[in-house]
Protein backbone atom coordinates (compact mmCIF):
# COMPACT_ATOMS: atom_id res chain seq x y z
CA UNK A 1 0.00 0.00 0.00
CA UNK A 2 1.52 3.32 -0.97
CA UNK A 3 1.02 6.80 0.45
CA UNK A 4 -1.09 7.94 -2.52
CA UNK A 5 -3.61 5.14 -1.97
CA UNK A 6 -3.83 5.93 1.73
CA UNK A 7 -4.28 9.64 0.99
CA UNK A 8 -6.98 8.83 -1.58
CA UNK A 9 -8.88 6.86 1.06
CA UNK A 10 -8.49 9.70 3.55
CA UNK A 11 -9.98 12.10 1.02
CA UNK A 12 -12.87 9.69 0.38
CA UNK A 13 -13.42 9.36 4.14
CA UNK A 14 -13.57 13.16 4.42
CA UNK A 15 -16.52 12.96 2.03
CA UNK A 16 -18.24 10.33 4.18
CA UNK A 17 -17.30 7.21 2.20
CA UNK A 18 -17.91 4.28 4.60
CA UNK A 19 -15.69 1.93 2.58
CA UNK A 20 -12.81 4.37 3.01
CA UNK A 21 -13.45 4.51 6.76
CA UNK A 22 -13.37 0.71 6.88
CA UNK A 23 -10.14 0.66 4.88
CA UNK A 24 -8.47 3.16 7.21
CA UNK A 25 -9.66 1.30 10.29
CA UNK A 26 -8.41 -2.04 8.94
CA UNK A 27 -5.12 -0.61 7.70
CA UNK A 28 -4.17 1.32 10.85
CA UNK A 29 -5.91 -0.71 13.58
CA UNK A 30 -2.99 -3.04 14.40
CA UNK A 31 -0.46 -0.22 14.52
CA UNK A 32 -2.51 1.91 16.94
CA UNK A 33 -3.56 -1.15 18.95
CA UNK A 34 0.03 -2.40 19.28
CA UNK A 35 1.27 1.03 20.33
CA UNK A 36 -1.43 1.42 22.99
CA UNK A 37 -1.08 -2.14 24.27
CA UNK A 38 2.56 -1.43 25.10
CA UNK A 39 1.48 1.67 27.04
CA UNK A 40 -1.52 0.22 28.90
CA UNK A 41 -0.54 -3.46 29.20
CA UNK A 42 -4.28 -4.13 29.36
CA UNK A 43 -6.18 -5.51 26.36
CA UNK A 44 -9.62 -4.31 27.44
CA UNK A 45 -8.41 -0.74 28.05
CA UNK A 46 -6.43 -0.81 24.81
CA UNK A 47 -9.46 -1.92 22.81
CA UNK A 48 -11.61 0.83 24.32
CA UNK A 49 -8.91 3.44 23.70
CA UNK A 50 -8.40 2.39 20.08
CA UNK A 51 -12.12 2.38 19.33
CA UNK A 52 -12.46 5.81 20.92
CA UNK A 53 -9.43 6.95 18.90
CA UNK A 54 -10.95 5.94 15.59
CA UNK A 55 -14.32 7.40 16.58
CA UNK A 56 -12.68 10.76 17.34
CA UNK A 57 -10.48 10.59 14.26
CA UNK A 58 -13.41 9.83 11.97
CA UNK A 59 -15.51 12.57 13.55
CA UNK A 60 -12.68 15.09 13.03
CA UNK A 61 -11.18 13.71 9.82
CA UNK A 62 -11.85 17.04 8.13
CA UNK A 63 -9.22 18.61 10.40
CA UNK A 64 -6.50 16.13 9.42
CA UNK A 65 -3.46 17.89 7.91
CA UNK A 66 -1.97 15.80 5.06
CA UNK A 67 1.46 17.35 5.74
CA UNK A 68 1.74 14.81 8.57
CA UNK A 69 1.49 11.04 8.44
CA UNK A 70 -2.02 9.74 9.17
CA UNK A 71 -0.71 7.12 11.59
CA UNK A 72 1.10 9.84 13.57
CA UNK A 73 -2.16 11.77 13.83
CA UNK A 74 -3.97 8.63 15.03
CA UNK A 75 -1.27 7.90 17.62
CA UNK A 76 -1.51 11.47 18.94
CA UNK A 77 -5.27 11.07 19.33
CA UNK A 78 -4.77 7.70 21.04
CA UNK A 79 -2.30 9.22 23.50
CA UNK A 80 -4.82 11.94 24.38
CA UNK A 81 -7.63 9.42 24.80
CA UNK A 82 -5.35 7.38 27.08
CA UNK A 83 -4.46 10.44 29.15
CA UNK A 84 -8.15 11.33 29.49
CA UNK A 85 -8.91 7.78 30.61
CA UNK A 86 -6.12 7.89 33.20
CA UNK A 87 -7.36 11.23 34.54
CA UNK A 88 -10.89 9.88 34.90
CA UNK A 89 -9.65 6.78 36.67
CA UNK A 90 -7.36 8.77 38.93
CA UNK A 91 -10.02 11.27 39.93
CA UNK A 92 -12.49 8.51 40.71
CA UNK A 93 -10.00 6.46 42.74
CA UNK A 94 -8.24 9.03 44.89
CA UNK A 95 -9.92 11.37 47.32
CA UNK A 96 -7.73 13.36 49.64
CA UNK A 97 -8.77 12.70 53.22
CA UNK A 98 -8.02 15.09 56.04
CA UNK A 99 -9.36 15.29 59.61
CA UNK A 100 -12.47 17.23 58.55
CA UNK A 101 -13.29 14.72 55.79
CA UNK A 102 -12.58 11.85 58.15
CA UNK A 103 -15.02 13.26 60.72
CA UNK A 104 -17.64 13.91 58.03
CA UNK A 105 -17.41 10.27 56.98
CA UNK A 106 -19.31 9.40 60.15
CA UNK A 107 -22.23 11.52 58.98
CA UNK A 108 -22.56 10.17 55.46
CA UNK A 109 -26.16 9.70 54.46
CA UNK A 110 -27.45 6.30 53.48
CA UNK A 111 -26.69 5.87 49.79
CA UNK A 112 -29.20 3.09 49.26
CA UNK A 113 -31.41 4.08 46.32
CA UNK A 114 -34.78 5.42 47.34
CA UNK A 115 -38.02 4.45 45.66
CA UNK A 116 -37.77 7.69 43.65
CA UNK A 117 -34.20 6.86 42.61
CA UNK A 118 -35.25 3.44 41.38
CA UNK A 119 -38.20 4.93 39.49
CA UNK A 120 -35.94 7.51 37.80
CA UNK A 121 -33.44 4.79 36.89
CA UNK A 122 -36.22 2.64 35.38
CA UNK A 123 -37.55 5.62 33.42
CA UNK A 124 -34.06 6.45 32.12
CA UNK A 125 -33.52 2.82 31.10
CA UNK A 126 -36.92 2.76 29.41
CA UNK A 127 -36.09 5.96 27.54
CA UNK A 128 -32.71 4.54 26.49
CA UNK A 129 -34.34 1.33 25.26
CA UNK A 130 -36.83 3.36 23.22
CA UNK A 131 -33.92 5.21 21.61
CA UNK A 132 -32.14 1.91 20.88
CA UNK A 133 -35.31 0.57 19.22
CA UNK A 134 -35.05 3.40 16.69
CA UNK A 135 -31.77 1.95 15.39
CA UNK A 136 -31.61 -0.57 12.57
CA UNK A 137 -31.79 -4.19 13.86
CA UNK A 138 -28.10 -4.84 13.12
CA UNK A 139 -27.12 -1.90 15.35
CA UNK A 140 -29.61 -2.85 18.06
CA UNK A 141 -28.06 -6.30 18.15
CA UNK A 142 -24.46 -5.14 18.67
CA UNK A 143 -25.53 -2.63 21.35
CA UNK A 144 -27.46 -5.41 23.10
CA UNK A 145 -24.55 -7.85 22.95
CA UNK A 146 -21.89 -5.36 24.06
CA UNK A 147 -23.65 -3.33 26.73
CA UNK A 148 -26.44 -5.52 28.04
CA UNK A 149 -24.85 -8.96 27.71
CA UNK A 150 -21.35 -7.48 28.23
CA UNK A 151 -19.70 -9.64 25.57
CA UNK A 152 -16.21 -8.81 24.34
CA UNK A 153 -15.73 -7.65 20.76
CA UNK A 154 -14.33 -11.07 19.86
CA UNK A 155 -17.31 -12.88 21.44
CA UNK A 156 -19.68 -10.66 19.46
CA UNK A 157 -17.76 -11.37 16.25
CA UNK A 158 -17.92 -15.11 16.96
CA UNK A 159 -21.63 -15.01 17.77
CA UNK A 160 -22.49 -12.97 14.66
CA UNK A 161 -20.06 -14.85 12.42
CA UNK A 162 -18.53 -11.56 11.28
CA UNK A 163 -14.93 -10.32 11.18
CA UNK A 164 -13.79 -8.53 14.33
CA UNK A 165 -13.20 -5.22 12.53
CA UNK A 166 -16.74 -5.27 11.10
CA UNK A 167 -18.11 -5.65 14.61
CA UNK A 168 -15.99 -2.75 15.83
CA UNK A 169 -17.14 -0.51 12.99
CA UNK A 170 -20.75 -1.56 13.47
CA UNK A 171 -20.58 -0.81 17.19
CA UNK A 172 -18.86 2.50 16.54
CA UNK A 173 -21.58 3.46 14.07
CA UNK A 174 -24.34 2.24 16.41
CA UNK A 175 -23.03 4.39 19.26
CA UNK A 176 -22.80 7.42 17.00
CA UNK A 177 -26.35 6.96 15.68
CA UNK A 178 -27.68 6.35 19.19
CA UNK A 179 -25.95 9.50 20.39
CA UNK A 180 -27.65 11.49 17.62
CA UNK A 181 -31.07 10.03 18.52
CA UNK A 182 -30.57 10.87 22.20
CA UNK A 183 -29.38 14.39 21.37
CA UNK A 184 -32.49 15.03 19.25
CA UNK A 185 -34.68 13.91 22.13
Automatic annotation (TrEMBL):
Residues 127-178 form the RNA polymerase sigma factor 70 region 4 type domain. Residues 31-90 form the RNA polymerase sigma-70 region domain. Keywords: Sigma factor, Transcription, Transcription regulation. InterPro entries: RNA_pol_sigma-70-like (IPR039425), RNA_pol_sigma-70_dom (IPR014284), RNA_pol_sigma70_r2 (IPR007627), RNA_pol_sigma70_r4_t2 (IPR013249), RNA_pol_sigma_r2 (IPR013325), RNA_pol_sigma_r3/r4-like (IPR013324), WH-like_DNA-bd_sf (IPR036388). One of its GO terms (biological process) is DNA-templated transcription initiation. Coiled coil: none annotated. One of its GO terms (molecular function) is sigma factor activity. Belongs to the sigma-70 factor family. ECF subfamily. This is RNA polymerase subunit sigma-70. It comes from Flavobacterium cyanobacteriorum.
